[in-house]
Amino acid sequence: MLSKNNYKEKLQKMKPKKDRFSIRKFTVGAASVLIGFTFMGAVNSQEVKADTKPVSPEQSPATNEDKGEQKQSDAGAVQAEAETVDPNAHVETERVETQDNQAANVQTATDKENTLKVNSNVDTSAITTEAAKEEKTEASTNLDNERTFKRTINVELPKGRHYADGSNKQSIQQTVQFGRTANIDQTTGKVVSYDNWKAANNEGTDIPANKWDPRDVSLPSYTAKATTADGQNYDLINGTVVPGVKFDANMLDQYKDLQNKVINITYKANEVKRTIDFVNKDNETQVVGHQSVLGLTGTSVKYSLDGDADGKNKLNVPEGWESTYRAITIPFNGDASDNDPVKIPVVPQIISDPKDPHLNETVVENITTKLPDGRTFVDKDGKDTGLSEETRQVKIDFTRTMTAGDYNPWQSVTSFTGIKETPGPAATEFPAFKPTPVEGYTPVVTVNGGAVKLVNGEVPAQSALNGKDLTKDINVNISYKLTNPDATITHTVN
Known about the structure:
CATH class of the largest domain: Mainly Beta
Number of strands: 31
Low-confidence stretches: 17-112, 124-140
CATH architecture of the largest domain: Sandwich
Number of domains: 4
Distance between the termini: 163 Å
Radius of gyration: 61 Å
CATH topology of the largest domain: Immunoglobulin-like
Strand order of the largest sheet: 24-21-20-31-26-27
Number of helices: 5
Structural class: mainly beta
Oligomer: single chain
């Protein structure tokens, strides 16, 4: 199969034939056309010849100079006659005297007539026409008249995130195309020159599509990571935007590495802060404490009263309150819901601890009696102790609880000891008592240094409480004075 523009081969094919036809251009573009027997068939098999007269045998042989003039004259006649052919047939014929003369006419065709313009396939109104596509020669298959720059952005959302169609992956295609016209010599089939590059227009507009637009790939509470197809890191603007690229038609050779660009976008979860509000179960408007907790976006973390094996993720319930939850799982969504506090109901906690000195205390009453004139005490068996001074103690043990961080009132938990007049186990005061009687003497009593009058011959009861607090230890001192200073007292010591 020969190219329709291979004129030398066509001339060789035409040698045995008597009739020859010239080369002209179609109105749709420059091309060589061979009008053969098909044309003859189209005119009812009649031969179309130039109107020339044969040379008679009687004429004298012409000289070389005459022959040249004759050929020139014949050619002019052929040209004039060919111009009268119907233009609608798109074919003009002429007489070709000799095969050598025909080859010479082909070789002297102008450069303009021998140049074929081959456009690119890029769909731009300024570049592509269907006629130009049909005029491409076999040599045009290797033309450099089309450039395509394609960028694919592959986005993979993290687990739990998806697009409207339910998938978590998306591919974004961005394409820029350039084209230019190649000027090809019809005789040699070689490219003579190229016109300037032009970008294809945006669909439905006359605006050139000569750039990749920037693409925002941000995702709240995640950090986007961009890599190329070979795993190299790709820089994002502010960590969220794939940068745009504008192509200069005069510098396309510098963009060869962008002809098939692939960028993969993945995401890393950020750490999210949430707040736990401890709320009084009986009064939800009362927030008694807060706790800040951390977790990665898209995860859930369990917090409990005891924490995990490492002691982490423990609920820090405010002192004096008790959580109604043993544990709670807190989600970290990475959206506006993270701004809402997690509410945990709590109730007042009653704390009691027999070893806690703040919750347990003993108040002591010290009773010291000093007998006059060398008198001494006897024990319970009636034996003389030889002591003229004696101290006894009376004790009351108190305890209390703590609720929601506040102390509750003191409560007595033991009875008096050391005296017979025991008022009961829940006494909050030391009972009244009678001092040891000494004949001829009157007891003189002080309590913590202050004089106290006897009431019905008894030392008055002393309270162990001072409002909500306990009193300090009570010191009762008893001494004696003569009832009648003028009387004579005789004391016999056995």
